[in-house]
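Re: weekly structure request thread

Next one in the queue (501 aa):
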Amino acid sequence: MKASWSKSLLSMAAGLGVLAGCGGESAPGAGKNPSELGTLGQKVLPACPFTTPVINMDKELVVRDLTVVNDSCRTQFNGTGCASPSSRGKWSFGYLMSQIAGNKDAVGTSEFVLNWLSTWQTTQVVNGHQVAARGGITTRLINTWRAKSGCATTGPCTLDFNQAPFRLLAIINRIDLSGNAYGSASPGEMRFVFGFVDLNKLSDAASNNGAMKGTVIFEYKLTQHLNTFDWAYYWHQLANYPFGESYNGALQQLTDLVTTYDPSWIPGGSAISQVRTNEIEFDTASLANRAWELREQVRDCSSGVCVLRPDTVKLTPDSRYNRGGEEQTDPAYMGTNLDDYLLNNASLIDQEDLATLPAHMVGGASRSKGALGQQLVWDLSSMAQGAYEPNGGSFKTATRHSFALQTCGGCHYAETGTSNFHVAPRGINQMTQLSGFLAASGSDSLMPNASDVSKPLYYISPTDPVDGETRQYNDLWRRKCEMQRLLNFWTTPLFKPSGAH
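Done, posted below.
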């Protein structure tokens, strides 16, 4: 399989003269430092120096068309709708988990998945921080799935992956995370986003067919089957296919290169980088006191058996360090720790460099209360408020925002004016909705402004939760520009992905 994929894809590229070794059109401003081509941050909309080739958002960047996410063959574990009944749908939750587990059968995949889900059932300790159990996952997800699979509530269970409580929302191209096209260790990422589903409400239109307030994202590194320029080329070629089987077949050629267990090409066999979840459904507190929680898991095969192990939520301190975070009495969590970091590292934070964030502060989850007006806002403690410029100090409120935007909680809530989901859960026959930060105007988000084609026509302007300033965002415009940069053989990234984890 590996050899045939590489041969067919690379020969096609060579025939069209698009391999990395071929000459490419110089980028506008060639020879300049990238910072001269636009901002290296996301404090304002990035000015894109490229206008060609035209990028189709829905076919090349965020694939969410119903003909893809409802594909009757590829999204079902047993391949219902496929030419071969024994086929396993290559975009199904069960198939992806089977490959991450090490190309396991249904029994081995069930053990792998149930072990992963069990990490919500008991308190975890990650980087020295306690991450409390989310007991609702047992009654609302695990027990229901076990029952649908003909299993008791405890003991071994071979899950029915055709009834997996996860609905595919989108397949996403994150080649914008590739870094330098020649020097990067990875050509970027590919992501599969699923929504949690209540299996008892599949026919309930009022609940969007059981769509829960929760998502899980499989974040893969693009593999070395292709270099960065070639990955950009093949993503771009998808725009030539009409939605339907021809498009889905071409997309699967790309996804298979990333998701298929293949130790001969991929170290450890799986290209999964991390699995992230974002939910409020499994908090058992009263409705007014429930908290959103984002978690991250990494593949760990060090014991000889692969598991998804809870890991730190990158660039995000435990919320108990924050002034406006959770109520707590543990002296290990002090708002002054965050004060010290922010005030002593302002110049680096302005450059969106959080490398000096103390490792011991990074949490095992990112939490924020869900009640209106109670969302977590990263801020200096009350005793340090005088350090802000408006209060007579030298610390800029924009620096606070730059830090907060790069945290998981900030990016998914207060800093971007988002209600936690950049890719939202959907009903069976509904196209998933995208946040304004990600896509300011749905499928029209890549339309240029006629008065300045380097800027998008549409953007959102969320209000800063601390200083009341507004900033303009349309992250898919930035991603589009990085895609065009690669298609024009420009090696160096133009912008930092601040906030776009």
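Confidence is low (pLDDT under 50) at residues 1-43. Residues 2-487 form one domain.
Next request, please.
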